[in-house]
Amino acid sequence: xxxxxxxxxxxxRVAPGxxxxxxxxxxxxxxxxxxxxxxxxxxxxAIMPVRTYLAQHRTEVSxxxxxxxLNRENKDLSTQIARLxxxxxxxxxxxxxxxxxxPGERSYVILPTTTTTTAAPAARVHR
Length: 127
Prior knowledge:
Blueprint: H1 2-13, H2 30-84, H3 87-98
């Protein structure tokens, strides 16, 4: 009996020739379409700024790291400029790299000695 009641209630719910998934044939109301459009526009307006913010944040972090590297390099170069600007260092570089001498000094260059070696006569192998 229950199976027959279930089949009767099924036939009452779904019209002949229609599937249960096709709906009742009514189109959505204009109010529901407006609400859907407002929700979609809100999502669009919320997502785009967030994506832009994240991209700008990544760029800012990258530029910040690059700036700190350049500041460190500038500090090292300033130290090197201060060290190389002294008279003693300039004189040291002029003497070592360019062989310059003060007036009245003589420059001597000591060449490496050449050694001559004589090869021992080849030993004869007897068989």
